[in-house]
Each structure stands twice: as C-alpha cells, then as structure tokens.
From TrEMBL:
Organism ancestry: Bacteria, Pseudomonadati, Pseudomonadota, Acidithiobacillia, Acidithiobacillales
Domain Magnesium chelatase ChlI-like catalytic positions: 4-124
Keywords, sorted A to Z: ATP-binding, Nucleotide-binding
This protein's name: ATP-binding protein
Superkingdom, taxonomy of origin: Bacteria
GO MF entry, a single one: ATP binding
Amino acid sequence: MVHSVALIGRSHSGSHPRPGEISLAHHGVLFLDEMPEFPRAVLEVLREPLESGEIHIARAARRATFPARFQLVAAMNPCPCGHLGDPQQICRCTPAQVSQYRSRLSGPLLDRIDIQMEVPALPVSALQEAGPGESSAYWRERIAQAVDRQWQRQQVRNAQLQGELLDQFCALDTVGTRLLSRATETLHLSARGYHRVLRVARSIADLEGSDPIGTQHLAEAIQYRRLAQTLAQ
C-alpha cells in the first residue's frame, strides 16, 4: 500500500522533514503507472504541488516547504480488467466496478492534468506494419527550439504564464475566442481548465514555430481535455 507520505515527504519525531517523491522529481518527471490503483487520498496530495510547484509539510512543531515543480505522467486502464472498449477482448467488469475504478480520480485532480489521451489497443497488423516513426533526436530539437522561443518572448515557460502575461501571450483572434467559448460550455471547463487549454495551445503553436495561436492549435489543445469528461461520467 502506497501512503501519501511517500509522495509528499515525512518528518519523524526529532528529525528534520524529508522530501518525498514529488520533490525528488523536481524539474523532472513523476510517472504513476496504473494511477487509479493508488488510494484516492494519496492521489489528492498531488493537487497542491501541481498548482503551486511547492509542497508544505507540517508535523508537530516542524514545518518545511520543498520544491515540487515536476511533470506528471500517468497511465491507467479503461476499467479494472483493462478490456473495456477493446474489440478483441471481452470486458467482464460491471458498470459499478468501472465507476468505482474511475472515481478514484477526482475532478479537481483531472482538471490539473493538461493533456489527457486515450490510447486504444492496436491490432497485430498495425504493429507489424508500423514504420520507423520520428526519432527522439528530432523531437528533442523541436522541443528545445520551442522552449527557446518561450524564453525569448516572455522569459518564462508557458506553464508559468499567469495573469497579464497569460492574456498577452495567449491572446486569441475572434474565431479562436468563439471556439474556446463553445468548448468551455460543452466540456464544462473550469477557469483552471480554460487557462490550461490556452497554455497548451500556446505550446503547440511554439512547436510549429508560429507566433499567433491559430485555430488549429487551439482545436488540438481542446481535444486533449475531452477524456476528463468521459472519465467523469
């Protein structure tokens, strides 16, 4: 059983507070496999650092703040058996089991995950016919160029854009504004979700070397929020 102290850190009696996994992953990646298998109470401690980039530990008379600006990457199955929606396998989970499994991911936690993608099972033919694809070196170069654009333009990464900087560098044209307004109503986006869509769209535009956020960039960013609506059902 994983406890929340493993993620946030701990403070034993008579000892200094020690950082947990989320602080050890500072400026790196924290990967949680089979995310719904973690107790909900453990997952909920991720909410604060995902928002602020810090974690606060208070034990008796001792208090400490550790850095925790990490990139969360998580994976999950569509249901406990893993076969829901698979045309090749029969799902044996009941609706109640699927609902209980998905309910371990709260709405506020999902709201803090920028990109949410469903990856269906591939048939054997697709695996056998798969081409070489794009190399890691190719994407490393593109990402480095996109990050450089961000620093040159605003002196922070897109993930740190707030307030006036967010309004200035994630500005949309009339068509984009209407598109995001419709998506906000359809997907019931919170204010946090609305702003996260803008930041993702800004990053997609940067990867393509585009100064303005185009409609295609915004539409792609909106697509990455649709899974949360499915999981909430």
